[in-house]
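Progress against Task 2.4 (sequence-to-structure conversion) is shown through the following example record, which the project officer requested during the mid-term review.
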Amino acid sequence: MALYQQVKDYIARRIQEGVWRAGDRLPLENDVVTQFGVSCMTVHRALPELVEQGRIVSVAGVGSFV
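Structure tokens generated for the chain above:
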């Protein structure tokens, strides 16, 4: 499985399990980079797909929210 897909699946799973609920802020991208040992580009590829699916909302300069 591609690294960006692993990041995307992790975030989606945490939302589905109720760990992160509507309105919760997701961890900072740098924290996700560190946790998974991936590049920023990998995280940047995963997040827009979650936005397209309606799972998260990204606000420039603020962060990503469920």
